[in-house]
Amino acid sequence: MDTQDPVGVAFTFGETTVRPARRELIRCGQCVEIGGRAYDLLLLLIEHRGKTVSKDRIMEALWGLRVVGDNALESQMSILRRILESDRSAIRTIAGKGYQFVGDLVENVALGHVTNAVIRTQTDRTRFPAQVSALIGREVELDELTILIPSRRLVTLVGAGGIGKTRLALETLRTVSERYEDGVFFAELAAIESSDHLSSAMASALGLPPCEGTKDLEKIVPRLQGKQFLLLIDNCEHLVDCVAYFIETLLRLVPGASVLATSRESLRITGEYVYGVPSLELPSSDDDENANTYGAIQLMRDRIGSDFPRSDERHAITTVVRICRQLDGIPLAIELAAACAVIYGLHGVSEGLNNRFELLRHGSRTALPRQQTLRATVDWSYELLPGKWQTVFNQLGVFAGTFTLATAQRMLETNQFSSEDIATGIAVLVNKSLVVAKPASQDMCYSLLDTIRAYAREKLEQSGTFRGWSERHARYMLQILSKSDMRPYDTTAGVELLYTLLPDLRSALAWSTSDDGEPHLAIELTIAVITPLMKAGLFDECLARVDTALQALSMMRDTALASEVANKWGMKLHAARGACLLFRDSGAHTNKAFASALKFAEANGDVDYQLRGLWGNWACAHLNGRHADSLTLASRIAVTASASDWLVDRIVAKRLTAISHLCLGNLDSARVQLDHISAEATRISPAERIRFLYDERMLVNAASSQALSVLGLHTDAIKNAEDSLGRASELSHVPSICYALSEAICPSALLAGDDSRLNDAVSELEHATRRYPVSTWRARAEMWRGLIDLRSGRVEAYASKILPALATIGNARYSVVLTPFLTETATALARIGRRDSADKMLQDAIECAINTGTVIAVPELRRASAEVVLLSSIKANADAIEAMLREVIIVSWQKGLVEWARRGERCLEQFFGPA
């Protein structure tokens, strides 16, 4: 078997060969289909062969910032191992850590050094344009082509207009020129309007006497016999049939001839190697710290030159990244934007890209007409399409994200176009580089670059059908969300599907809420998208959508909208608003949203939303320390839950009751409830587990861990904390993972004195919040990290991390579960001489605990207050401090607060000796 790859390096292990540059996997001599992520997973493991690659490292490489769970990785690994068959043992699972490639790998460099090439001095037979500016951001493509071309007699660079095919081809020609004994030549066809002039252009490019007429192409070829040369034919798409015939004839009759062609579609002749020219590399986010290392950003900075802003370079780079991402990394569009930036500034260009075809029309005066403006570049491709396929192209503009063939057929099939027509049309558009084909795990997916999509939508508007297609698209998205098989958003596959749909969901919502949209449809679509947005942790976006829908609903109440419908919509929207606000704070407006949802639910007799409203009111009461109120609300939830068909609702009622008792210092009542529901929670079905923002099985374990920690049962507390994390990880539900780490593992590890476990948990929390940027969990990650830093002697951590985090958390900082954090932070401050800060933190917490009746927290806070005084240089009134400590110990033992009593005893012994 030939394991040589004409494009770079091929790797062989067992009966498997991997060709990275061509993204091919060959098993037993046969090319095997493999999904993009499974292939990237294999390449990553090969790259780190012999070393363990952690799951986090793999997930970042494969999914970036997208919120996915371990199940997604396990699924891709299963696919990969199934494909590898007998070679699957080359990948070893390292339990609890990751994966390792352990196969015997043979590396083969194909034509990395062309030993048979003739090195010669350039002659006048080598004809191509001189280099005017450096090629930027194409190092990988240039390296691949430099290796590829000597081994392939026909290579066609294919890509969308403005993608940089010509510039890359010319640089490649310059790089390989010395390998061709009789020279390299350049034929530019863009200015040739008819195939009648093709022979003359070819003859001129090759330094031959002029020819006329298509038949004279056959006269050119015999004159080239015995020559060894490379011919670059640029811009073939409008003369593709005639060019294909000429190249096929040339290669057949002149063995020493090779051709490099550029075109917006392939030539489709024997022996052609199609090289897809990608957009320039882009950062995955606007605030990427390494933005300057990406080709697109480098190109724009280079073209702006000395006019690039220097006063606030970080902000300027962020704007440049945003511009380049909006322009899909297309070099021509970036160069046009750079020219405009000199006139309008970076901010002006960024704002003006909503009308990019009008803005980007200041190209080079010496460029070909179709390259002087962005519109002219796309016009060139569009006008080469038959009218039938222009219509299909226009209609595909309604898709904002990726789509499958089946999706396009269901959306676009009409009396005018059958499903077969649409399939053919997409194939034509892919071949013309107007639609991008992307292999997926199951079906092939398709998409339009943003610039191409904007052009298609513009054409759709000009045809007068844009509103009709937009409404059809919005209703189609509503239909998809309403399908029963689209509901399991707590699964990895469901979250993956959500991210695939998000661009189209956003587009449908944007249209339906516009002046041209349909208010009823906008509200229905908003309600349908609430669950997936919240499952993905996009709470800010969800809140904005809900507020827009509520505003529309308030305006519609004055119309003929049925009150029953209005109440149902209002109930769902207010419940969602409260849930989203709860991730910011637990203030009056959050409580009001849940109260409104409860009011509508009671009017509608809807038990489900009555529970949601009551649960939200309980959460606000609990987080604000109103534990007597929360106990009353827990009782109401228990009564309402008795009418629910969901087992989880009754378990939630018991858990909330237990937590209220725990905060009020009623440990016996809390333990009875928690012990009772621990077994019951195992019967909660997967569909029920995430009813109220978090996984209920995780919450039961977390609550048990909190109670056990206060009872001094650290081994059991840590086990329950770890179980809570395990439950959350089962569902790959990042909000639940954050909760388990911050509210269960961190406090239990801190109270158990397990610094290693605490540090690991904080690191996991930081990683989770990078993938799940919700303010309350980011603040908790920062807060816990600040404590670790402070205890390590980094004084600045208090002001830079802890204080900002506590300000974000608000009153929730005084919740029982964070009591150990507050006391440890205060004593750490006292040890470094910051008694005033420590005193203020504890006095505020004590005042809050007393005012709210948070009985369980008071003894530990008072103990820490005494320790802060004892740690300071001023040892005033030692008798009073000793008396206070003894009182804390007695009260703690009386109330069963074992851990607080033991901590008091240790403090007393440390400063006053054995009792």
Structure, explained:
The chain is of the alpha/beta class and 915 residues long. Strand 11, helix 8 (240-253) and strand 12 (257-263) form a beta-alpha-beta unit. Mean pLDDT is 84; it is low at 1-7, 109-125, 363-372 and 484-491.
Could you give the topology of this structure?
Layout: E1 8-13, E2 16-19, E3 24-27, E4 30-31, H1 36-47, E5 52-54, H2 55-63, H3 70-84, E6 91-94, E7 98-101, E8 106-110, H4 139-148, E9 154-158, H5 165-176, E10 184-188, H6 198-205, H7 217-220, E11 229-234, H8 240-253, E12 257-263, E13 272-276, H9 295-304, H10 313-326, H11 331-352, H12 356-359, H13 374-383, H14 387-396, E14 403-404, H15 405-412, H16 419-431, E15 436-438, E16 445-447, H17 450-462, H18 466-482, H19 492-512, H20 519-535, H21 539-556, H22 563-582, H23 588-604, H24 607-623, H25 627-641, H26 647-663, H27 667-680, H28 696-710, H29 714-730, H30 734-752, H31 755-771, H32 775-791, H33 797-809, H34 819-831, H35 835-852, H36 858-871, H37 878-894, H38 898-912
Parallel strand pairs: 9-12, 9-13, 10-11, 11-12
Antiparallel strand pairs: 1-2, 1-8, 2-3, 3-4, 5-7, 6-7, 14-16, 15-16
